[in-house]
Amino acid sequence: MSAGAQLISAPDLHWSSTWEDDVADDEHRVLAALFARCFPRSRTAFTGTRSWSSGRPELRVVGRLDGRAVAHVGVLRRFLRVAERSASVLVGDVGLVAVDPDVQGRGFGAQLLGRTASTLHDLELPFGYLTCGDHVAPFYATAGWMRVDGGTRMVRADGRVQVYGGVSMVLPVHAPLQEWPAGCLVDRNGLEI
Asked: 3.40.50.11740, 3.40.190.10, 3.10.129.10, 3.40.630.30: which CATH number matches 14-191?
């Protein structure tokens, strides 16, 4: 948003939560089209019913405006391995965070992050976890997400293992941030959402 732009107040979206096994092909098509608009430079071709990037989420939260899907987040419960501590941490791994470019700047992103926090709370998870680019980390920080050090090791879509070079963030939900293993490399042991 430019320095002179103002946030336009908008009504709440109509929200739904759907388990991945219950997402119909028609909905996958709608979401694939949304992601194609939101992530035009993605290596993933969001076409047809392909509405996921690398790994598929377990649960999807979708916001609709006048019946049209304009906001989305995917959540996958998983244990992240923290090698330095020989421990695992249960998280809601968050991905495919998207707001249609046609409606950005109207507060829907803030609503989406609020719904994300509520979903993680309802799933009784200690933390939310996500990786993102440095340019969007401030957006997540406005909703209470905290940048953590240590990096994230994960499987890329092509099957190779990498340490992600971007930002890793945690949202304390049912556990305080002090319980997060700070400064440690986190191993996702799987694909990002």
From this structure: 3.40.630.30
